[in-house]
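Input:
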Amino acid sequence: MCMTKYEREIYRLITESTGHMSAEQVFHEVKNIYPSVSLATIYNNLNKLSDAGMIRKISVEGSPDRYDRPAKHDHMVCRRCGKLMDVQFRDLTDVLKSQMNEEFLFYDLKVYYICPKCRRKEEDGTVR
Amino acid sequence: MCMTKYEREIYRLITESTGHMSAEQVFHEVKNIYPSVSLATIYNNLNKLSDAGMIRKISVEGSPDRYDRPAKHDHMVCRRCGKLMDVQFRDLTDVLKSQMNEEFLFYDLKVYYICPKCRRKEEDGTVR
DNA sequence: AATAATTTTAGAATAATTCTAAAAAAGTGA
DNA sequence: TCACTTTTTTAGAATTATTCTAAAATTATT
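Output:
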């Protein structure tokens, strides 16, 4: 067998969902289908998939790691709530290559902002 | 008093050193000067300084947060050992602004590569 | 000096993740 | 199919990084 049922299910969840799920969220989803699954299995498989380059691990300070489809894209991160949003900026590979002599594997671009929801809250005055 | 002795010392360490120190490393350095300092104080002050924008917190998956001078610059990250290196690519602020309608606060660009040390190890054949 | 506010401390608590060793499941070959 | 090897899963302990807590110490204010 090529992929175990857990690998398959986790891969499907990460790539078909709107993405950005934490290990804990994946755990709850998988539990709906295979109630006996353990959290260690989720971590095992998330690591295996991300080592194999089939999914992508995203870490943002202050929140648990999240997992995303592997296709190249960038992220907007809300400075307040940590919410991630996919965004596709112009590809920088060539620009970066021309500015360095070393080879590189890939790059990770995060643009920090205040998401509409948090901005509204701040404008309400109550929260800061 | 404007800054406590710990704030002052920690700020100095982060901004004058070659940077990229973890809380634990800062702790050991500060301990040399003020042997009674506790780790909680280090975290308190690192957070205070980074909330105030006086230092910058960098998080890379798989390693503890590190702290850096606040001046705008980018990072190369070794995919194997996690070592950080400062690098100054062309500023992207305008390029990014022109590609989105929202305002943003700042961006974070990390370029992943294999550092010379780790590359050498891999070429030796022994380690993979 | 008396009081109030801030900072520091030690250690407990929490959160995220990895490790461990045993059990279960899957794959292999005679 | 049976015996055996390999891989995967499991539960729970262990680890790591960080925050929280409440008391003690220090600093500032009246």
